[in-house]
Amino acid sequence: MSPQKKKNLGIKRETAERILKEVVQRAKKINSSPESQFMYFVSKVLVFGSYLTQKERLGDIDLAIEIEQRWKTDKEYDRLLNAVSGNKVLGDSRVFYPYQKLITTLRNRSKSLSFHPIEEVVRGKFTHKIIFERTYKLG
Q1: 104-108, long-range: CB within 8 Å, 24+ apart, which pairs?
Q2: Are strands 11-12 and 57-58 parallel, antiparallel or unpaired?
Q3: Are the C-beta atoms of residues 106 and 33 closer than 8 Å to each other?
Q4: CATH number at residue 125
Q5: Could you tell me where the DSSP H helices lie in 48-135?
Q6: How far is CA 64 from CA 20, 40, 97, 114, 131, in A?
Q7: How far are the Cα atoms of 3, 23, 48, 101, 133 from residue 65, in angstroms, in the given order?
Q8: How many CA atoms lie within 13 A of 48 on its CB side?
Q9: How many domains does the chain fold into?
Q10: In this structure, is residue 63 part of a structural domain?
Q11: Position 5 in a domain
Q12: What global pTM score does this model have?
């Protein structure tokens, strides 16, 4: 007999709610971190999909994020990238590293989170709920 794969039974709604609270806390932490740690701000986090239903068990948690860059010039980008990566990122990775670091931090090893481009959700007119929106300080 061959071993059978366990069927993914999903996560409980209660667990999903805890995970979403943690994502919001991590987004706030990213935004309050110095630019030497993250090259983007998280401006918005949307949840959509099965989380917005009444189901007690969810397959995963679908999120879309909107980000804002912290740099204004190519020279500033290079300076920030070197600070964030410790001068360890080369070639094509220079483009993807800052975004990947942000997603990895938001995910925090959770296998229950599924990230999607925010344009996919908005353009597709998916029903969604904003769970985090960056507040701006004036002055």
Answers
A1: 105/26, 105/30, 105/38, 106/23, 106/26, 106/27, 106/30, 106/42, 106/63, 106/65, 108/22, 108/26
A2: antiparallel
A3: no
A4: 3.30.460
A5: 74-85, 93-107, 118-123
A6: 12, 15, 19, 8, 10
A7: 38, 11, 11, 14, 10
A8: 18
A9: 1
A10: yes
A11: no
A12: 0.86
Structural domain of 40:
11-133
Domain assignment of residue 2, yes or no: no
| β-sheet bridge partners, residue 58 | 11
Identify the bridge partners of residue 11 per DSSP, sorted by sequence position.
58
Residue pair 30/42 in contact (Cβ under 8 Å)? The answer is yes
Q: 């090259």: which residue's tokens?
A: 39
| H-run or E-run covering 40 | strand 40-48
- Record the tokens describing residue 18, joined without a space: 């805890």
pLDDT band, residue 139 (cuts 50/70/90): very low
The tens digit of pLDDT for each residue in 51-90 reads: 999 999 999 999 999 999 999 999 999 899 888 888 787 7
